[in-house]
Amino acid sequence: MTNVTPTPFMAPAQLLGSMWSALPSWMPIPGLGMLANNAFVHAGREPMLVDTGAGLFGDAFIQTLGSVVDPADLRWIWLSHADPDHTGNLARILELAPQARVLVGLLGQAKLQLSGMDVSRCQVLMPGDEIIIGGRRLRAVRPPCYDAPETLGFHDETGVLYAVDTFGAVLPEAAASLEDIDESTLRDGLVTWGAIDAPWQADLEPTLRARRFGAVERLAPERVLTAHLPLGLRSGRRLAQAAMAASQRLPGDMVALEAAVAAHAAQSLAETEVA
Ligand SMILES: [Fe+2]
Ligand SMILES: [Fe+2]
Question: Cα(38)–Cα(2) distance, rounded to whole angstroms?
Answer without folding.
Answer: 17
